[in-house]
Write the structure tokens for this entry.
Amino acid sequence: RLLRSRIRKTKSLDYETYGNHPEFPDVDLSGMMKMLDGAPPTAHIFTPRKMVRLFLRVATTSLALDKVLDDVNNAKSQEEAYKDCFTKPTIGRFGVLPNPRNFHPPPYAADNWEKDSDFARQFFCGTNPVMIEVAKDPETQLSKNIVNHFGKNKLQELTDKNQLLFVSYDDLADLKVNPHQMFPLPMNDESGPDGGPAPQVHPKFFYAPIVAFTYDYDKDELDVLGIQLERTDDARVYTKNTCGENEWIAVKCQVTAADTNMHEWVSHLGNTHFAMEPHIIAIYNTLRQARHPLYTFLRQTTRDTLMLNWGGRMSLASIGP
């Protein structure tokens, strides 16, 4: 009876509104989903076991990354630096630290990653299958450059057959400059003040690509029709037939970089984590207080989200100017 009374008297969680970001003061964020005011309650923090595992993972990864950077800096050639960074399974004098950059792609990915059909397949079967659309009006949905390059009649013919699809990263068009020195320091020279990294003369930014695909009903697969990386009036339209092999791979890599960031920041962080936060707060304030049976189920499906969101705002999403 005492436990029940204490649960019922548990303080409700408060909502908070997002303030404007210092780098984009003119962008109003008050319309975003509400967030939790302050740190999450004890019912939503990580378990002691998970905290210990997290601490060990952070500690070993931090030590391993420091060792990897030392090996890269001391490498005698680019090939040796690449090997030290990406291919060693373990690092350290006794090989006790797992290399966090040791990537072993699945055999299928290793054999097919350069194919256009596999690149296109990722927009349905990859980590961010929410961007691709079937074209209905190519003159308005695609760029003027793409329409002029392939011809209005050809694109309309593909549209009428439901064979023209596209992806357009419009949200990235306004994010042209990255003012942060976010790339690894070994990739920069040491000509800056006191031998440190030199200021970026040309800061990095993400392209805002537009990708056009064609669907082959007989093969049941997509192919890449063309890619436009920039949003300028004279932007080039890249195709497999007008690019060298390495240039075409580099263009597709730029699209993948844009798609990855849209996935991490919009589809995953925004539309999944942050969008669910006010609902989790409401569940806590209502079902938990009323000891509703549904809370037993919903608590397990939302257990770590408030903690992850709060931690993300304090770390990953807290970068200032």
Summary: Residues 19-104 form one domain.
